[in-house]
Write a structure and sequence with these properties.
The structure is a single chain. The chain is α/β, with parallel strands linked by helices. The chain has two domains: about 240 residues, Ribonuclease Z/Hydroxyacylglutathione hydrolase-like (Metallo-beta-lactamase, Chain A); about 140 residues, Flavodoxin domain (Rossmann fold), CATH 3.40.50.360. It is built from twelve helices and 23 strands. The strands form five sheets. The chain has a seven-stranded mixed beta sheet with strand order 1-2-7-8-9-10-11. Strands 12-13-14-15-16-17 form a six-stranded mixed beta sheet, with helices on one face. Strands 18, 19, 20, 21, 22 and 23 form a six-stranded parallel beta sheet that branches. β10, α4 and β11 form a beta-alpha-beta unit. The longest helix is centred in the middle third of the chain and has 16 residues. The radius of gyration is 25 Å and the shape is elongated. The termini are far apart. The structure holds flavin mononucleotide and fe (ii) ion (FE2) (2 copies).
């Protein structure tokens, strides 16, 4: 337990040993599941809960501040189980509490706890809750990073509870940013967290920052990582978010031909696709990448940044090859709809690689400019011409 300001306490749990989060994210510095108790003159609120595995120490931390039965409200800024997993067990220790959350959150939390009997109050944007000398103001912040996300502002104490927003997987034992022993590592963690969690939600991040701009505060209380204070990391973290969410300004559109090829057959097609894009008459920068020759993270970033792309894969073992799937697994599903794309590749006899990739792109709602182009073993002159035409069609779609 740590006192943050008069009547505000951090009661969450540290998980310094964590190295993987949400299956796909590596976390070199562990994390924390921060949860805050706010004691007004009349009422007490708990803001965000905790991961289920840490319920016992979490309850202990709450007990150090107050009798759990004296908690009147639980605010769920976001309902992902790292912040709500301990809720069901916690409720058994509490008296009558009302949960304050967004409309979307109210649905998720019923399905996360599998309880229909929860007392839930759905908050509207700008609504307030008076605890007695402390007012909680709820601010809608959708897609930061789930549809359910809200911020909670406490004007009397000039603090904002932002849950994942401005958070980092960084277990800071001394709670405050000014105590951090390794600020550079924290900045790395902040960046990794932004990329993994908020990267796809650029516009929502900008909207969230605008909402924060309208508030007067000197502390951000996130639910992962250190508390951010004025003149230490608060301004830095906000400035970083502004920079990372700023739209990339390009002089020209960017098209990328991704491919990989065991015997050079898919590569021959890839070369023609590239020429086709170049000759489409559009002002476009074209990049040509053998996926396995570059770090996968770089390839994924390029895929998410480009304006159009083509993917070339041979068929091996009745499918596209693993590096192609690895690339597609990193595709930002939020911003994929309507992006022009094309699929091509060589095969021997059954040829599932191209249609499988095309099906995946269709499920992401990308705009395939043509049916996939397949060539049997070594592409003929006609196949090469078709590949060039495919590139031209992709260029024309820009
Ligand atoms: C290990 C291996 C497995 C293969 N499996 C299939 C297959 O299941 N279906 C198919 O149509 N072709 C299959 N092929 C044939 C390749 O798709 C074909 O050789 C193609 O031309 C390779 O293109 P690339 O030179 O671009 O790698 C296989 C080839 C290899 C080497
Ligand atoms: Fe989350
Ligand atoms: Fe989280």
């Amino acid at each position: 337990m740590k006192r943050i300001k008069e009547g505000i306490y951090e009661v969450g749990a540290l998980n310094p040993a964590m190295r993987v989060f949400d299956i796909v994210m590596t976390t070199d510095y562990g994390t924390s599941y921060n949860s805050y108790l706010v004691k007004g003159q009349e009422k007490t609120a708990l803001i965000d809960v905790c991961h289920r595995s840490f319920f016992e120490p979490y309850l202990q931390n709450i007990r150090e501040v107050c009798d759990p039965k004296s908690i009147n409200y639980i605010v769920l800024n976001h309902n992902e189980p790292d912040h709500t997993g301990a809720l069901a067990e916690l409720l058994a220790e509490l008296g009558d509490v009302t949960i304050y959350t967004s409309q979307a959150g109210s649905i998720y939390i019923k399905n996360i706890t599998n309880r229909q009997d929860l007392s839930i109050h759905v908050v509207k944007d700008g609504e307030t809750l008076d605890l007695g000398g402390k007012t909680l103001k709820f601010i809608s912040a959708p897609f930061l990073h789930w549809p359910d996300s809200i911020f909670t502002y406490l004007p009397e104490d000039k603090v904002v509870f932002t849950c994942d927003f401005l958070g980092a997987h960084y277990a800071e034992p001394y709670t405050f940013d000014y105590n951090m022993a390794y600020p550079e590592k924290y900045e790395k963690a902040l960046h990794n967290y932004y990329d993994a969690i908020f990267g796809p939600f650029q516009k929502y991040v900008q909207a969230g920052l605008q909402k924060l701009d309208a508030l007067d505060f000197d502390m951000v209380l996130p639910s992962h990582g250190p508390v951010l204070t004025t003149d230490t990391m608060l301004e830095t973290a906000i400035a970083r978010y502004r920079g990372w969410s700023a739209p990339v300004q390009r002089e020209e559109k960017l098209a990328v031909v991704f491919y990989t090829s065991a015997y050079g057959n898919t590569k021959r097609l890839a070369v023609e696709v590239m020429h086709g894009i170049r000759e489409s008459g559009k002002k476009v920068e074209v990049r040509f990448c053998d996926i396995i020759e570059h770090p996968m993270e770089e390839m994924r970033q390029l895929l998410n940044e480009c304006d159009a792309f083509a993917i070339g894969t041979p068929t091996i073992n009745r499918d596209a090859v693993p590096p192609v799937w690895e690339l597609l697994a990193g595709m930002d599903a939020v911003n994929s709809p309507k992006r022009p794309c094309a699929v091509f590749g060589s095969f021997g006899w059954s040829g599932e690689g191209c249609p499988n990739v095309a099906a995946r792109l269709q499920s992401l709602k990308c705009a395939l400019v043509e049916e996939p182009l397949r060539a049997t073993f070594v592409p003929t002159q006609e196949d090469l011409e078709k590949a060039k035409a495919l590139g031209a069609a992709l260029g024309a779609a820009l």
